[in-house]
């Protein structure tokens, strides 16, 4: 039996076929999950709808995660269609382009609040809204990046937001783990992947090119790598795992590779 047979997953954050959320959706579909998709804005609908339909999903709903009423509406529709939910994937982040260039010192108050609202609070808001619909042993998953732990050039306010997101994972895991349904909350910290979001960060092309030389496995990460890890974390195989940040970065987070002629 496939890992996610009989489970229903809502996926927020697919933008195109290069999105990490799309890699997760493909893995979930392969493992037998029933999928529902949410997108942000009419422009994205033209990309997301055919992708969702290619995986047999006809539940494709718009949602502005900065609006509680939008989130509530989407959850009502999800309950009407699916009854109960097993998995929610949050792959959403946003910061103003001006706040990702120049010194972090120059981030505006409004820019800071925007990044925190959409990139961080939206996960808490979605968790609160979906929790009443979740079956026992359900799973929530979000996406982060090592810029939460290290000062990465041009990541700026998004690094601060990701640090807050990882803290949210731990507190949500504590809250929802105490529920008798034992709902789990985890994050995946992926290595740099050429997605639509990453393309907006200055120097990202060079970073991705260099990554394959400095990761322990000496290769780049794919959306399929992340999808496979997500399938595990959201399956019953990971029933004892919660509050974790799981790195899918070819070992980059633990150190640099030794040179070929390094001595013992």
TrEMBL record:
Domain of life: Bacteria
Alphabetically ordered keywords of this record: Fatty acid biosynthesis, Fatty acid metabolism, Lipid biosynthesis, Lipid metabolism, NAD, Oxidoreductase
Signal sequence range: none
EC number: 1.3.1.9
Catalytic function, reaction form: a 2,3-saturated acyl-[ACP] + NAD(+) = a (2E)-enoyl-[ACP] + NADH + H(+)
Keyword Aminoacyl-tRNA synthetase: no
Pathway the protein contributes to: Lipid metabolism; fatty acid biosynthesis
A UniProt-annotated Pfam family: adh_short_C2
Gene Ontology annotations of biological process type: fatty acid biosynthetic process
InterPro entries for the chain: Enoyl-ACP_Rdtase_NADH, NAD(P)-bd_dom_sf, SDR_fam
Positions of the catalytic residues: 145, 155
Binding-site residues for NAD(+), renumbered to this chain: 13, 19-20, 64-65, 92, 162, 193-197
EC primary class: oxidoreductase
Record flagged with keyword Lipid metabolism: yes
GO molecular function: enoyl-[acyl-carrier-protein] reductase (NADH) activity
Positions annotated to bind substrate: 95
Family of the protein in this entry: Belongs to the short-chain dehydrogenases/reductases (SDR) family. FabI subfamily.
Name assigned to this protein: Enoyl-[acyl-carrier-protein] reductase [NADH]
Upper classification of the organism: Bacteria, Bacillati, Chloroflexota, Candidatus Thermofontia, Candidatus Thermofonsia Clade 3
């Amino acid at each position: 039996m496939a890992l996610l047979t009989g489970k229903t997953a809502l996926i927020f954050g697919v933008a195109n076929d290069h999105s990490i959320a799309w890699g997760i959706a493909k893995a979930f579909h392969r493992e037998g999950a029933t999928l529902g998709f949410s997108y942000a804005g009419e422009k994205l609908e033209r990309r997301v709808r055919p992708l969702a339909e290619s995986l047999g999903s006809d539940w494709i709903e718009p949602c502005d995660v900065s609006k509680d009423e939008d989130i509530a509406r989407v959850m009502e529709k999800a309950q009407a269609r699916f009854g109960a939910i097993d998995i929610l994937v949050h792959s959403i982040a946003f910061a103003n382009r001006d706040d990702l260039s120049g010194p972090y010192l120059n981030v505006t108050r409004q820019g800071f609040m925007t990044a925190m609202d959409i990139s961080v609070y939206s996960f808490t808001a979605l968790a609160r809204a979906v929790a009443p619909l979740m079956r026992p042993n359900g799973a929530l998953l979000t996406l982060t990046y090592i810029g939460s732990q290290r000062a990465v050039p041009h990541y700026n306010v998004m690094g601060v937001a990701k640090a807050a997101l990882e803290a949210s994972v731990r507190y949500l895991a504590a809250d929802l783990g105490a529920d008798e349904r034992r709902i789990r909350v985890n994050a995946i910290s992926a290595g740099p992947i050429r997605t639509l979001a990453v393309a907006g960060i200055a120097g990202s092309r060079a970073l991705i090119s260099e990554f394959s030389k400095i990761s322990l496995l000496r290769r780049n990460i794919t959306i399929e790598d992340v999808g496979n890890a997500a399938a595990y974390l959201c399956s019953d195989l990971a029933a004892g795992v919660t509050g974790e940040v799981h790195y899918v970065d070819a070992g980059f987070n633990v150190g640099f590779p030794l040179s070929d002629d390094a001595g013992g």
